[in-house]
Amino acid sequence: MAEKNIHALIKNLFPESFVVDDIYSLLTTRKIAREIIYMKKTDSTNEAAKRLSMKSDGTLFIAQTQSQGKGRLGRSWKSPAGCGIWMSLLLKPEIDEAKISQITLIAGMAVCRAIGNGAKIKWPNDIVIGTRKACGILTEMFERDDHCRCVICGIGINVNNKSFPTELREKATSIYIETKHKTSREMLIAEIMNEFEKLYDRFCKNGFAPLIDQYRSLCVTLNKRVRVIYKNKELFGTAEDIAADGSLIVETDSGKITVNSGEVSVRGIYGYI
Ligand code: BTN
After folding, report:
1. Would the CB of 80 count as within 6 Å of ligand 1?
2. Cβ atoms < 10 Å from Cβ of 197
3. What radius of gyration, in Å, describes the C-alpha atoms of the chain?
4. What is the pLDDT of residues 237-254, one digit of tens each?
5. What is the DSSP letter of 15?
6. pLDDT tens column, 204-228
7. What does the alpha-carbon distance between residue 12 and residue 35 come to, in Å, rounded to a whole number?
8. Are 83 and 66 in contact (CB under 8 A)?
9. How does DSSP classify residue 149?
């Protein structure tokens, strides 16, 4: 009881901070986020996880704010203190390199399930609520000198943001803007980790195939007209299906193509989705 009061007091005094004990108390995981490294400020939690890659499999890095938050395709990611979740999970999976990108899809599913409130996935792994983006995921892989393969799954979620700068307003949203309710970031982090571990365990045992139907049911890109931008080339088509390895199958005017998530951007033709 006394401990709860102290946590409430900390939250009142420093509303931008996280109470890491609250996250621990809500976790049901065996391995994921069993160690949490919390930083008031860092350049990027993905970079922090790389620097501390000797930490155990499943270590979670969380920052109140990032000075050089990174997005996909070399973009930057705004990470102000107080309203969002900026975190990276360090994983050391023993799976084929070709399957690593599927971890990103699983992370997207976990975030979607934890947020609820109609959150869906824009292929490959943007989480949208309504027609705008509330979360982005950046997965990076590297091999250490001791040949240990590390995967860093960075997740950025706009949680309690009340507004966005003009340049982001059309594309970005937050859980608060969509639901008009404040969300506990500690609770959401724990829920994402709990969901992630369930999916990740199944994935490591049986691969992505048994999870595809669940991914399809969350994916708003399917059956939409899309614009695929790859290496300065632009193609138009209809997103038809998700392949067994998680790539997107698009029927274009010049035939079917299979798009891998790596270096490609897929946009709706009438807007972001
Ligand atoms: C995207 O949609 O472009 C991916 C955005 C990923 C942002 C997160 S925030 C936590 C982690 N640290 C980073 O520097 N990036 C990811």
Report:
1. no
2. 20
3. 18
4. 999 999 999 999 999 888
5. T
6. 999 999 999 999 999 999 999 988 8
7. 25
8. no
9. E
Give the tokens for residue 251: 């029927």
Query: Which tens digit of pLDDT belongs to each residue from 152-183?
Result: 999 999 999 999 999 999 999 999 999 999 99
Residue 43 alpha carbon to ligand 1 centre in Å: 11
The beta strands (E) that lie in the chain are given as 36-42, 60-66, 84-91, 120-122, 126-129, 132-143, 149-158, 225-230, 233-242, 248-252, 255-259, 264-268
**Rounded CA gap, 102 and 132, in Å?**
23
Burial class (CB in 10 A: 0-12, 13-18, 19+), 220: middle
Using the structure block, give the residue that is written with the tokens 């669940």.
214
Hey, which of 39, 47, 79 would you mutate to test ligand 1's pocket, going by the most ligand atoms within 8 Å of its Cβ?
A: 79
* Neighbouring residues of 48: CB distance < 8 A, sequence distance ≥ 6: 37, 39, 42, 61, 63, 88
C-alpha to C-alpha distance for 197 and 187, rounded to whole angstroms: 16
Most ligand 1 atoms within 8 A of CB, residue of 68, 75, 77 to mutate: 77
Alpha-helical segments (H) within the chain: 2-13, 20-26, 45-51, 101-115, 166-169, 175-179, 185-206, 212-218
43 contact partners, CB below 8 Å, separation of at least 6 = 66, 67, 68
Provide the residue type at 99 as one letter. K
Structure tokens at 97: 């390199």
Measured from the Cα of 68, ligand 1's closest atom is 14
Bond into 124 cis (ω within 30): yes
CB of 177 within 8 A of CB of 103? no
